[in-house]
Amino acid sequence: NSRFVYLDPFVGAQLAVAEAARNVACAGGQPIGATNCLNFGNPERPEIMWQFARAVEGIGVACRALDIPITGGNVSLYNETDGKAILPTPVLGVVGLIEDAATATCRAFRSEGDTIVLLGESRDELGGSEYLKVIHELVRGVPPLLDLVREAALQRLLVKGVSDGLIRSAHDCAEGGLAVTLAECCFDTGLGADVDIPEVDAAATGFGDVTTLFGESASRVVVSVAASSTAELQAFAAAAGVPATIIGRVGGDRIRVAVAGRGVLDEPLAEAERLWSCAIGNHFESQRAIA
């Protein structure tokens, strides 16, 4: 995963495996196989060969922990410009099995009044984030911690919860953090959200609400369930050892986010979705204007 720039690519490669498998589990699929494309600079340089070896090692550890075999892949080396290598970039693809296609779910909220639940924990982690890259033009930092035992438990819960019809929507919390994930859950259906999320103690980074909203802690998923099934999901998560926090309700035509009771975001859903859906075109239009 090229978002992480630090001394050892081992953890970044594990995060790439975990995120790819988690996306499959969010749809209700049991991850059953993975492939990869490993992109690096000149392996004749010792530091590049070391990056490559550590990334492969990290992928192996994560795949064994999540019981996902690597079925194949390819390697792209000597990716350099003027002697400067690309960032170490292992790309992972994971496929899964859904026994009954009718049970598959998606990222978007389904019904007005459903309960929104955050599975997993948010921590004081901002390294390698989209926030740092987009807002501060910084690609650096220590990546989020990854506990593969907790990750496996979360994925098992997702697969079972979706197949049983308990979880009505599920969206992996990754690039952009919790705030972006919540917004994406609202798009395509016209259903807004009103949430109040716990505050992350950001003493280490000093970024306060930014870390709470845009930190990219691993092993987190935003799900929705029928209001009448909220207690059942909480009990299910507790039995699985997965933290589950009720953070709000689906409904309305705005995206409202509070942090520990303090309102921090209140945006019209339609405008947020317009910006999101036109992002690629707007980016290249601005680049053309500069040129």
* Through-space gap between termini: 30 Å
* Shape estimate: globular
How does the helix and strand content classify structurally?
alpha+beta
Oligomer description: single chain
The number of distinct helices, counting runs of at least 4 residues, comes to: 9
What do these coordinates show?
With 291 residues, the protein is of the alpha+beta class. The protein has nine helices and twelve strands. The strands form three sheets. The protein has a seven-stranded mixed beta sheet with strand order 7-9-6-10-8-11-12, sandwiched between helices. A three-stranded mixed beta sheet has the order 2-1-5. A two-stranded antiparallel ribbon has the order 3-4. A hairpin with a 2-residue loop joins strand 11 (254-259) and strand 12 (262-268). The longest helix is centred in the N-terminal third of the chain and has 21 residues, at 46-66. The chain starts with 9 loop residues before the first helix and ends with a helix.
Please tag this protein with its features:
291 residues; alpha+beta; 7-stranded mixed beta sheet; 3-stranded mixed beta sheet; 12 strands; 37% helix; globular; disordered N terminus
Task: Give the arrangement of secondary structure elements.
Layout: H1 10-26, E1 30-39, H2 46-66, E2 70-76, E3 80-81, E4 84-85, E5 89-97, E6 115-119, H3 130-136, H4 148-163, E7 169-172, H5 177-186, E8 193-197, H6 209-214, E9 221-225, H7 230-240, E10 244-250, E11 254-259, E12 262-268, H8 269-277, H9 279-290
Parallel strand pairs: 1-2, 8-11
Antiparallel strand pairs: 1-5, 3-4, 6-9, 6-10, 7-9, 8-10, 11-12
Helix pairs in contact: 1-2, 1-4, 4-7
